[in-house]
């Protein structure tokens, strides 16, 4: 089913305002006044601004997702370096390996990886002398791991806000703004239908503008939010 788009609603507003203005003498008694049309234009501008915020917030969320994946890969590599040193020092079956989570399955969870990093940092300090002498580990291995963990924690916190607050709020605001514009257009169509019920040629000039709200700009790299299902124009 077709959905109204922000691009389409903007196109519809431009054409419908011109058509309504040309019949303002008839329509103003039904509430379609010059003030109403001015407000319709203002609602459309608000919609465009709000949809731009929505696109920006969701783009930020996508970028943070990529940054978090990169940070996780970097930290995992540092953890594996520490674990490698542990395996060189402590044989299979040694309980010390468990302190460094050697052999445990990584499920790509950020919280699990940070738990591993914390355990490796503590274990590295506990067995520092042997890990340096026999495991080929140096202080910079731990420093790099801790730095990557701090970076990942910061990205993860920012990402959670973007994912659960910023992006959803921006999407909700954009959908409401689109609904406000669509409602204003529908009010004009309703006034035209009531006024020109016996003049199908005039009414047809309004009706042919309805499909504009479903238009989408081609080659658009960013999509506006998808609104709830809308009824397509009746033929």
List the SSEs and their pairings.
Elements: H1 6-22, H2 24-27, H3 34-89, H4 95-99, H5 110-126, H6 128-133, H7 139-195, H8 200-207
Helix pairs in contact: 1-3, 1-7, 3-5, 3-7, 5-7
Protein described:
The protein has 235 residues and is an all-alpha fold. The chain has one domain. It is 72% helix and 0% strand. The chain has eight helices and no strands. The longest helix is centred in the C-terminal third of the chain and has 57 residues.
Share in β-strands: under 5%
- Quote the average pLDDT: 81
**Count of runs of 4 or more consecutive helical residues:** 8
Radius of gyration of CA atoms, rounded to a whole number: 30 Å
Shape: rod-shaped
Ranges where pLDDT stays below 50 over 5 or more residues in a row are none
First-to-last CA distance: 15 Å
What's the β-strand tally?
Answer: 0
- Classify the secondary structure makeup into a structural class: mainly alpha
- How many domains, in number, for the residues? 1
Report the sheet with the most strands, covering strand number, pairing sense and barrel closure.
Answer: none
Descriptive key words:
235 residues, 8 helices, 0% strand, rod-shaped
Describe the structure concisely.
By secondary structure, this protein is mainly alpha-helical.
């Amino acid at each position: 089913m077709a959905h109204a788009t922000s691009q389409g609603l903007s196109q519809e507003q431009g054409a419908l305002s011109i058509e309504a203005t040309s019949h303002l003498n008839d329509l103003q008694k039904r509430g379609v006044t010059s003030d109403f049309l001015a407000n319709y234009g203002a609602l459309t501008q608000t919609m465009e601004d709000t949809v731009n915020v929505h696109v920006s917030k969701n783009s930020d969320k996508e970028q943070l997702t990529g940054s978090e994946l990169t940070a996780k890969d970097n930290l995992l590599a540092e953890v594996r370096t520490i674990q490698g040193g542990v395996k060189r020092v402590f044989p299979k079956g040694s309980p010390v390996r468990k302190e460094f989570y050697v052999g445990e399955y990584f499920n790509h969870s950020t919280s699990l990886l940070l738990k591993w990093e914390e355990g490796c940092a503590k274990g590295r300090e506990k067995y520092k002398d042997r890990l340096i002498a026999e495991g080929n580990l140096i202080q910079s291995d731990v420093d790099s791991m801790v730095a990557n963990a701090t970076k990942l924690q910061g990205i993860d916190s920012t990402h959670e806000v973007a994912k659960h607050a910023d992006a959803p709020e921006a999407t909700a605001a954009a959908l409401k703004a689109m609904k406000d514009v669509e409602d204003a257009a529908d009010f004009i169509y309703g006034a035209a239908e009531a006024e020109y019920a016996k003049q199908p040629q005039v009414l047809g000039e309004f009706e042919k503008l309805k499909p504009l709200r479903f238009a989408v700009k081609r080659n658009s790299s960013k999509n506006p939010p998808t609104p709830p299902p809308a009824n397509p124009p009746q033929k």
